[in-house]
Design a protein that fits this description.
- 2 copies of one chain form a homodimer.
- Chain A is an alpha/beta fold and 382 residues long.
- Chain A has 2 domains: 6-12 and 262-381, Aspartate Aminotransferase, domain 1 (Alpha-Beta Complex); 17-260, 3-Layer(aba) Sandwich (Aspartate Aminotransferase, domain 2), CATH 3.40.640.
- The first copy, chain A, has helices at 17-23, 35-50, 63-72, 88-99, 117-126, 150-160, 180-183, 209-215, 227-234, 245-261, 263-283, 309-320, 346-362, 371-381, and strands at residues 6-8, 55-59, 80-85, 103-108, 132-138, 140-141, 146-147, 164-168, 187-191, 203-207, 299-302, 322-326, 336-339.
- Chain A has a 7-stranded mixed beta sheet, with helices on both faces. Chain A has a 4-stranded mixed beta sheet with strand order 1-12-13-11.
- In chain A, helix 1 (17-23) packs antiparallel against helix 10, helix 5 (117-126) packs parallel to helix 6 and helix 12 (309-320) packs across helix 13.
- The longest helix of chain A has 21 residues, at 263-283.
- Chain A is globular, with a radius of gyration of 21 Å.
- The two termini of chain A are 34 Å apart.
- The interface between A and B is large, with 57 and 57 residues.
Chain lengths: 382, 382
Amino acid sequence: MDDKLMLMIPGPTPVPEQVLLALAKHPIGHRSSDFAPIMAEVTQGLKWLHQTQNDLLILAASGTGAMEAGIINFLSPGDRVLVGSNGKFGDRWAQICEVYGLTVDRITAEWGKPLDPEQFRAQLEADTDKQIKAVIVTHSETSTGVLNDLETINRYVKAHGQALIIVDAVTSLGAINVPIDEWGLDVVASGSQKGYMLPPGLGFVAVGAKAWDAYATAKLPRFYLDLGKYRKEVAKNSHPFTPPVNMFFALQVALRMMQKEGLENIFARHQRQTSATRAAMKALNLPLFAPDHAASPAITAIAPVGVDAEQIRSIVKKRFDIAMAGGQDHLKGKIFRVGHLGFVSDRDILTAISALEAALLDLNYDFTPGAGVAAAAKMLTT
Amino acid sequence: MDDKLMLMIPGPTPVPEQVLLALAKHPIGHRSSDFAPIMAEVTQGLKWLHQTQNDLLILAASGTGAMEAGIINFLSPGDRVLVGSNGKFGDRWAQICEVYGLTVDRITAEWGKPLDPEQFRAQLEADTDKQIKAVIVTHSETSTGVLNDLETINRYVKAHGQALIIVDAVTSLGAINVPIDEWGLDVVASGSQKGYMLPPGLGFVAVGAKAWDAYATAKLPRFYLDLGKYRKEVAKNSHPFTPPVNMFFALQVALRMMQKEGLENIFARHQRQTSATRAAMKALNLPLFAPDHAASPAITAIAPVGVDAEQIRSIVKKRFDIAMAGGQDHLKGKIFRVGHLGFVSDRDILTAISALEAALLDLNYDFTPGAGVAAAAKMLTT
């Protein structure tokens, strides 16, 4: 049905009406006194959301652009980096490192399984001459719905003492606790179309003092992604290039909404919806792709047996106007993914599960009709 | 007055209501069948606007990001490039080249004067062993309102036979004729907040066959700005990263509007408004910063004598809610700039000139009240 699409994918995510309307305002000049207070407010709001006093830099770029900036500003050709890779995005950060001539050691896990922090510990402890310059970790792996144990991995990085920790928080920031200052995360990158309740178009990078020290001697070439330029301008409530001013209007509104809801409530909402979604899948005999102890708060991946993932997605989309995501790369056709990230209410979870049940009925899948909705409802109301 | 701002700066430029409303639509999935037809339509529309069959690639980036992509995808460390520099943006492209370790020869002209094509000819003719790999030219120099003679410079590049021509068309595309295929322009970059009647947030790069040949062996590192990735995906009506889907909705509407108006009419409108603005300044005894034969169709810079540029801008903004641009870098306080680019009607020119006259009256400047409006009106109506 036209204009009736409901997004249950891990980005773009749904956007509130008041944010959309802010997006539709006439642009203003980015070098004018009109823009500076907006820049000041959104920067402060982002620091609140990121739980940090570090520099918070806003790029016109996707999450990949933000993450590339988070890597290339702090390293030099030949530098050794440890990259956690257990999905499409971990793989991508390793690729970026290779493109820039870094020496990459991958720590891998099967897609759908979390990275083992002990493997990081072993490599970091063995590095007695401190050759590892950075450890790159994807917090919530969007391609599999796995949440990696960032807190533990980061503890081993801190024990190493030298390496920076560079975090892909693209689908974790705004969904689950990422206490940048408390944990001492050096570089944290994310994107607007995820937990921020915004359309795609902005990338965010939080940069701490130790990373800026590395920046001073880092030699990889960059200009548009040169975070030093952003840092210099944000100190004047300005921006080095022409920022997408309409997205800044929208960001301003979205951050005010998030501040009103409060960090604890936002995290609790994502946790509740994750639990409800997972409980529903179990009640429907649909195997979860990620284990309970490593479940992303943003996205649940399901690996159905005896029923086709793509057929489920197709029916849910065509009959009920709900977009769910498919598998990527070698998981195409093997899993489907339900996003519950950003502007998602408990009602949306019930809606998605009930539509999923309808599709399963249509496909003659063996399950107890109503069991998924009941299981989700129970998690949402208790 | 709140919500009454009128943009007469060289970007962001005014955006039509129907484009703003498209921006406020709910996002869709960029990997869905909903997105592919939009990608197909805007790519075709952009090819029409660029007068080319070359690949047309859309980046989530500012014009600088697009231009950096246009440079770094086709060159290798140490490559010799000629960079035309007669303003802030020409300087910036030279800086980017230096950051990436290219060997840069600058061809300069005083800010406010056009580049001399004969200097390009001399260097290109002297390069008998074909060491010059690219010539980088800013078509319309936004910082000064100068239009460089791209057609002639390009003719000398073609005579050289080897070098690519890489064009910053950020404030010329959509304002004046840039016939990419007819002239054989290898790489042309621009940005959404200029002639496209859109807010900032998208960059565009048109890439021809000769540039793709260079891409095959070019060694500068890139990932987010790797145009090969965009080329591969656009062939499938897709995008390598998460594109700003709302900006694509807006682009779709803006391109339809431009196609309805027609290229000839769009160019004629910009030319007429440029002539009217310049005639008004002459009638007001306000010295034009760029000579008539090198006047940008997008922006007119004025270097007032006996009256302060910043005071003019301040009064026009505070009393009449019109944003005009100031000078950049060493021109700060010395010039002001009137943008007439994109969604600007003849009425806007009359409005801007009449407000400017009011400011001049307020500042006791010596001029004939009404002379500017009369001169502009004459150019607009004959």
